[in-house]
TrEMBL record:
<dbReference type="InterPro" id="IPR002059">
    <property type="entry name" value="CSP_DNA-bd"/>
</dbReference>
<dbReference type="InterPro" id="IPR012156">
    <property type="entry name" value="Cold_shock_CspA"/>
</dbReference>
<dbReference type="GO" id="GO:0003677">
    <property type="term" value="F:DNA binding"/>
</dbReference>
<dbReference type="InterPro" id="IPR012340">
    <property type="entry name" value="NA-bd_OB-fold"/>
</dbReference>
<dbReference type="GO" id="GO:0005829">
    <property type="term" value="C:cytosol"/>
</dbReference>
<dbReference type="InterPro" id="IPR019844">
    <property type="entry name" value="CSD_CS"/>
</dbReference>
<keyword id="KW-0805">Transcription regulation</keyword>
<protein>
    <submittedName>
        <fullName>Cold-shock protein</fullName>
    </submittedName>
</protein>
<feature type="domain" description="CSD">
    <location>
        <begin position="1"/>
        <end position="67"/>
    </location>
</feature>
<dbReference type="InterPro" id="IPR011129">
    <property type="entry name" value="CSD"/>
</dbReference>
<keyword id="KW-0010">Activator</keyword>
<keyword id="KW-0804">Transcription</keyword>
<keyword id="KW-0238">DNA-binding</keyword>
<dbReference type="Pfam" id="PF00313">
    <property type="entry name" value="CSD"/>
</dbReference>
<keyword id="KW-0963">Cytoplasm</keyword>
Amino acid sequence: MATGIVKWFNARKGYGFIRPDDGGPDVFVHASAVAKAGRSDLAEGIRICYELRTSAAGRTFAEDLSIP
């Protein structure tokens, strides 16, 4: 499972980005993944664990979120 810090998340827009601990590019996170984790929002700066997935279009995104 990958880890990172929430760079920003806007519940109104329905998405945000995570800055991965491994120094790679920022990871997109959609509001649906946040809702599946039982939350409605993510606070900027919190540590988060996630699984990295790739869409059919080749874009990477975070799924299966958990907050340690």
